[in-house]
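Reviewers of the previous submission asked for a worked example of the structure-prediction workflow described in the proposal, so we include one complete record here. The input consisted solely of the amino acid sequence. No template or homolog information was supplied to the procedure at any stage.
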Amino acid sequence: MEIQRNPTRSVQVGSITIGAGHPIAVQSMTATHTQDIDATVGQVNALHAAGADVVRIAVDSKKDADALREIRQQTAANLSVDLQENYRLAELVAPYVDKLRYNPGHLYHHERDKPWQEKVSYIAQVAKDNDCALRVGVNCGSVDPAKLQIADEDSLAPMLASAWEHCDLLDSLEFTRYVVSLKDSDPRKVIEVNRRFAERRPDVPIHLGVTEAGMPPDGIIKTRIAFEQLISRGIGDTIRVSLTVSNPRKPEEIVAGRQILADIAAGRVRSVVDYGLQTLNIISCPSCSRVENEAFIDLAEQVKEMTAYAKDHSITIAVMGCRVNGPGETDDADLGLWCGPKFVNLKKGPVELGAFTYDEILPKLKSELDALITASGPAAVAN
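From that input alone, the workflow returned the following structure tokens.
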């Protein structure tokens, strides 16, 4: 079926164009350590061979930037880079990539006394000088702290205010080669926040994704629900399916994305699915190069298996793989785990319960889960 797309501007990213009616681009992100050049090149090329239009790599240090220079020479893929907290790395990586992604909430972590507007102006100039596009990546778990006070009655307001503000600044700088993403782990919030953003800025290409979607098949189902609702409304110009899978399985993100797009185009949609069921919800981040212990992948699988007995209880458990997003993005979960190199940090809501070894964490999690089940009363009963 013919889907009427929003009339967004065009944004060139290497050999492809995002927006302006061009085919919806499918992206993924490497999960290898960037300084392991052979492994990272292997994964970039595997994703590219699977049909990835853009492959994102995380860069968190000058050594990562040095590795990126070598990676660029060994792949034909369109590359994007995730700047993390240190926005100054932009000038080191921009010569070797096609797009820079920055998170407005992370701009406050480095050179804290400098206005964020000055930092964005710098990033935009670097992008312009190096023929790069930008992505303004707004994330529910790391929102601009200056916007949090407006969340009293509207939890999506901080994300929207931040995105619109950054668009306005980039436009004022006469830099319009950018896309915006607004991501959450709840498909319903992803649908609502992107719908509201597009109402005000239908000209800006949108990168769609459900962050921390989790493991297949649940992660694909969550993502499909959001994409069906948005793309059928003409919203969305590039997508990422974020799955918690081992390194050799990363191309599954591309396969899942292509299948969802093909199904939407053919009218094979499942929008009658109601994700708002009062049942156990496990969210976990996609494996990426920020993960400091690959045991995170196994842990996410073990959590899913261990907690199966609680499937009829309305409880959210978050399993995060790194210290960058983990602390903030577990706050809204009933129980949250974020993984370091040797220890897993356990939280109950925003309250820290301690750090435990990978061998200790599952019994401790089960104890806390049992306490929540006892406190919450009888399980939900399906109709």
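Residues 157-172 form the longest helix (16 residues). We consider this example representative of the routine output the project will generate in years two and three.
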